[in-house]
Write a structure and sequence with these properties.
mainly alpha, signal, 151 residues, DUF4398 domain-containing protein, 5 helices
């Protein structure tokens, strides 16, 4: 009896710990300052919702017309601003340092590949006895053949 009670208590505690941990997963969830900032910057739009005599919205009484949208002049003004920003960014000189770094990196890559091909050309040919490469004896003979006396 007490054994199952202990497991139940342990399960309840584990569940409560898991639920309390959920609060720390989303720390900014209750932060409404961003939403309040956006609302304060937005233009006030008159609602078309029909209201009763006390000022409460009538359920099921949908607006007969849509709320007013942006005017053509406001759209043209915003489009002009975006176009001028795009032209300014397109006319700005590119970052020459970035392109120089890319060119230097490509040159280093080309030189390393060339050095690798040159180094692999000087390697002894694979012997016919093994598919893994030259035998140690072949490498030793090549080293001895390339060594010059130090006298």
């Amino acid at each position: 009896m007490s054994f199952t009670f202990g497991f139940r208590l342990l399960g309840i505690l584990a569940g409560s710990f898991a639920l309390t941990a959920c609060q720390s997963l989303f720390p900014d969830e209750d932060n409404t300052s961003i939403g309040a900032l956006r609302l304060s910057q937005a233009e006030a739009v008159q609602s078309r919702q029909r209201l009763d005599e006390d000022g409460y919205p009538l359920l099921g009484a949908y607006p007969g017309t849509a709320a007013p949208q942006l005017t053509d002049a406001a759209v043209d003004k915003a489009q002009g601003e975006f176009t001028s920003i795009a032209r300014t960014r397109a006319a700005a000189p590119r970052n020459a340092g970035y392109e120089a770094n890319i060119a230097a990196s490509m040159e280093a890559r080309r030189r390393l590949a060339e050095a690798g091909r040159a180094a692999s050309a000087t390697q002894p040919a694979a012997s016919g006895t093994a598919k893994r490469g030259p035998r140690p004896e072949d490498v030793l003979r090549q080293i001895e053949a390339t060594e010059q006396p130090t006298n």
